[in-house]
Design goal:
The protein is of the alpha+beta class. The chain is 53% helix and 22% strand.
Length: 108
Amino acid sequence: MARMDQVNSLLHHELAEALNRHLDLDGCLITVTEVICSPDLKEAKILVSVLPEKFVGTALAKLRHISGDLARDLRPRLKFKNMPTFIWIFDERLLQAAELEKVFKEIE
């Protein structure tokens, strides 16, 4: 496994656990689907899925609001020289897959 893949995987795992500790949105499930760090580790694009979809805006706003707390929580565990800036992105791939599945069922 390449070094960046290891960094992405480690950050993915730690963020998923940290979200359970720091994020409290009733009636909403947020899942970290992928983490993509820049080679210089200055930024980390974090793709999340949100269920139900009507909470996407609220969830992303809350995630952006607690980014500093998450970084402070992860810093001692990850021991990165510089913690990347978190860029939260809604992962639309699951929605697209569901739409494709509907189309395939209609074709049958």
